[in-house]
Fold each of these.
Amino acid sequence: MQALVVTPGAAATARLADVFEPRAAPGEVLLRPLEIGVCGTDAEICAGLFGSAPKGEGHLILGHELLAEVAADGGGFAAGDLVAATVRRSCRRCAACAAGFPDACLTGDYLERGITRLHGFASELACERPEHLVPIPRELGRLGVLAEPASVCARAIRHARSIGGRQPWEPARALVLGAGAVGMLATFFLRLEGLEVLTASREGAGSDKAELVGASGASYLPVSDLEESGDFDLVVEAAGSGELMARALGLLRRNGVACILGIDGHSGQVSVDRRTLGVDVVIGNRALFGSVNAARQDWARAVELLVEVGTRWPDAATRLVGLRVEPGRFQEAFDYTGVKATLRFA
Ligand SMILES: [Zn+2]
Ligand SMILES: [Zn+2]
């Protein structure tokens, strides 16, 4: 069967290759991937900067953002059911993983499908254990391919509410930095929760992304126009910019919470104003935290939120995935600068 593979650690090795068809082990469910979302993590793996192959193998099948159809009855699923799959797997030796929260793994020795020591789903067939599958309602359809980035947002919002909720807190105004898939989904989800949202990103005020932000009832601002306002209860950094991360604490109002979801692997210094850290953070009870991956409950919440987005903003929802190409055109998907591009396997 055809699969999108890379040689981890080497640059520009992504290719469609013929690989052995997987055989479902006892208890596993055979899946027919329909669509695979691609993101910056895939781009980093393709650049040889990240990712590792399963033990004893030289290649890694990409694809951690899955929408699949169940190919044969099993594990409580029926052929034809739509599913997504969680990404991270237990390290088998820490308390967080033992409790069912590999997203909070304490050792860092977890595995991740399509990223770290486990093949991904960018292939014509794949297998997974039923406990890692997430049912996608029919009504969500192809939008289900956004379940993975949506789960990352759902976790971030859950943690922000938990951290903010350590003291009386009624978040009303949110700032989202970045308008890629995570920033855009965070924008829509926070709007669903009734917050006033300002989303700031690199694109101009008349861009497609600005228009999509506006469709949710949020406001859009080119990030170059962002001022140090100290006006937000919640800041979500999804742009992957160390400079913006460093500014987040200064943008919060009293009791505000800032969450970093972007990755900035560049070396170098960013600076934070001494008074912001030494006075405002203390006097204002402000908090900054990072969040990665998602727990099972976040996947369930993500699917609920995506269904709500599709119901409330049907036109905008269909525009979230702006490019769907066949797997052989993977480079176009990697180069796409809109919200989300996917590879269409079936
Ligand atoms: Zn991703
Ligand atoms: Zn662990």
Amino acid sequence: MVKRVFISIDMEGISGIVDWSEVDRNNSEYVFARKLMAGDLNAAIKGALDAGVKEIVVSDAHGGMRNLRPEEVHEAAHLVRGSPKPGAMMEGIDDTFDAAMYVGYHSMKGTSNGIMCHTISGRAIDGIWINSRETGEFGLNSGTAGVHGVPSVFLAGDYAATVEANAFVPGITTAAVKWAVGRYSAKCLHPNESTKLITAKVKEALTKPLPEPRVVNEPVEVKLLFNTSTMCDLASLMPSFERIDGRNMKGNFNDYKTAINAMRAAIYLAGAAERR
Ligand SMILES: [Zn+2]
């Protein structure tokens, strides 16, 4: 019986949202988008409660990680918010959870018909390979859940994100809330319908046999492709990485957590580079 659930919630895969302007807190469009985000989250929480879950921790995982208004989140959940946080999109997960869920998720950079597809940093990163497999945010974060022995059981997002989730975790339950027809355009379910779907699918995910935790083989090779060579100039100052060429570098790490932390530190460094 699933008692403790961890939820990581991003914004690009939330019901009805199709454009960067809607996920940017400095834009007036963001006001309605963060309400839709709370709607998808509360639908997932309702599904978990329907399945008998007793404890829910939610990690706000988009941008500055202060997108959810605390008073709009279902009172059954504890909310982890603010940035930077050590575990980033997965801050709050530990070995005591029975299941991890992902809401508002999007596909990796370069996915065709993937709404606002990107990997960690749209500005700095063109691609991330873990042990030679190109990996997006769901793949990276489900690996972190796996380090704690926690299975990734549910994802809601655009259709491309659900396809990606199934490729990384066979048997995961998913809810597609929109179908992209381009990177910034999609056919969307009405939020009243998508939230009903999320509630039903979460309940289903938590009451059927759970998939195995996703365990990434160690040692771990991380390869990063940056948008510009200046970004790689800066990121390759990290001692554990070796430069491959203008925009690529790679490093080997004994364990997954160290690999992910080194990857994040490298991306932060790259963020100090020029914007062109
Ligand atoms: Zn995001």
